[in-house]
UniProtKB/TrEMBL annotation:
Domain PX: 21-138
Entry superkingdom: Eukaryota
Protein family (similarity comment): Belongs to the sorting nexin family.
Record carries keyword Flavoprotein: no
Gene3D superfamilies: Phox-like domain (3.30.1520.10)
Official protein name in the record: Sorting nexin-3
BP GO annotations: endocytic recycling; late endosome to Golgi transport; protein transport
Organism of derivation: Monascus purpureus
Membrane topology: Peripheral membrane protein
Length: 142
């Protein structure tokens, strides 16, 4: 007969405390700015984490689609060992309709969750945490 290894009961903290490493990224609250030809939509990025690569445990910043495009280009140049996923495609008609904005929001959130969750990018990227957490992020600084 084989001996059953002794199992220890988890403590309350282990069960209900924060996981060892967690990262929650949410893209939400789209807002359309400007008028006629100068209109654009920006999105709020909410980050909650305890991963050391991120300076802040919680942050909220606002970015527009073109910021995501610059960010993705910078990541591709910076991270030759990692395949960076695509962004949701450019939209040329009805780009300010609720359905189009929601579809883009979902795609941007999926993109950020994949990129921010990648261990090589978490430890090796200089731009990742800054894009997600710095309200004064400047695309021209990279």
């Amino acid at each position: 007969m084989q001996a059953v290894p002794e199992s220890r009961q988890q403590t309350f903290e282990e069960i209900y405390g924060p996981p060892e490493n967690f990262l929650e990224i949410e893209v939400r609250n789209p807002q359309t700015h400007g008028t006629s030809r100068n209109m654009y939509t920006s999105y709020e990025i909410v980050c909650r984490t305890n991963i050391p690569a991120f300076k802040l445990k919680q942050s909220v910043v606002r970015r527009r689609y073109s910021d995501f495009e610059y960010f993705r280009d910078i990541l591709e140049r910076e991270s030759t060992r990692v395949t960076i996923p695509p962004l949701p495609g450019k939209v040329f008609t009805n780009r300010f309709s609720d359905d189009v904005i929601e579809h883009r929001r979902e795609g941007l959130q999926r993109f950020l969750q994949i990129v921010a969750g990648h261990p090589l990018l978490q430890t090796g990227s200089k731009v990742l945490a800054s894009f997600i957490q710095d309200p004064n992020w400047d695309r021209n600084a990279w």
